[in-house]
UniProtKB/TrEMBL annotation, chains A, B:
GO terms for molecular function: magnesium ion binding; phosphoribosyl-AMP cyclohydrolase activity; phosphoribosyl-ATP diphosphatase activity; zinc ion binding. It comes from the Bacteria. The lineage of its organism: Bacteria, Pseudomonadati, Pseudomonadota, Alphaproteobacteria, Hyphomicrobiales. GO terms for cellular component: cytoplasm. Mg(2+) binds at residues 92, 94, 96. The keyword Ribonucleoprotein does not apply. Zn(2+) binds at residues 93, 111, 118. This is Phosphoribosyl-AMP cyclohydrolase. Its cofactor is Zn(2+); Mg(2+).
């Protein structure tokens, strides 16, 4: 990793209209990453990146994240083959989030449950209680087989 | 606000396939909210919600967030008129993020800079330095006029 990020300016205008990409990592050193399919814009997942993951993503064109549960760098698709080739990276007005438009290799699926997107459930209310109902049941791979391979 | 959320299960399978919506608020009491335009899926913004904002959003059908900079409940569009009517809410496999598909009222714009989306800049590298270039310069409103009205 050779790419480094300068500290963000305290000047809001500089963050919004300046030419420097100075991500505003939070107190844990992370920015939010929103990942959509470059083909049709479908939301695939939301994850987090530290400076190393973000630099590796920019330099290699392959999406890397920081796994908060494993507390380590995470090359998405390393186990499943569902690697994400990054077509475009955008950032938002205050530079605390990035948007990756990706092409998914392997099974063309992103969720570890085997589905195309992690957002396979719709939120609603039933009998006064917040509920989820499955909107997408199609599986692109069998997690038991794919994650057992390692 | 009458809707309350039960604590998330420690059982991963229950979180992934159960019928209860039990958002996994982080240590600050927040989940990530990804907001897209219900018409064409364009990513408009990323924000955060506490339990109150999430309940209000579900109950009223109008997007509410928690402003981390102001440390308070935030009804999006209260100043600008660019209120978001929620068409669908989804959640992801581990229930720590929600996806709102919205219809934007007012100027049909979401970013406080007057643009349709907060993600108006593309990230790249120039001379070894991380840079941003503006991909969307179109303004739907003049922030000086809109935010001065208050």
């Amino acid at each position: 990793m050779t790419l480094t990020f300068a500290a963000p300016s305290n000047d809001k205008a500089e963050l919004e209209i300046g030419s420097a990409f100075t991500p505003r990592f939070d107190e844990k050193g992370l920015v939010t990453a929103v990942v959509t399919d470059a083909r049709d814009g479908e939301l695939l997942m939301v994850a987090h990146m530290n400076a190393e993951a973000l630099a590796l993503t920019i330099e290699t064109g392959i999406a890397h994240y920081f796994s908060r549960s494993r507390n380590s760098l995470w090359k998405k698709g390393e186990s499943s083959g569902n690697v994400q080739a990054v077509q475009e990276i955008r950032t938002d007005c205050d530079q605390d989030a990035v948007w990756l438009k990706v092409t998914v290799a392997g099974h063309d699926a992103t969720c570890h449950t085997g589905r195309r997107s992690c957002f396979y459930r719709t939120v609603g209310v039933e009998g006064g209680e917040p509920k989820v109902t499955i909107s997408d049941e199609r599986r692109y791979f069998d997690p038991k087989l794919v994650y057992a391979e390692k």
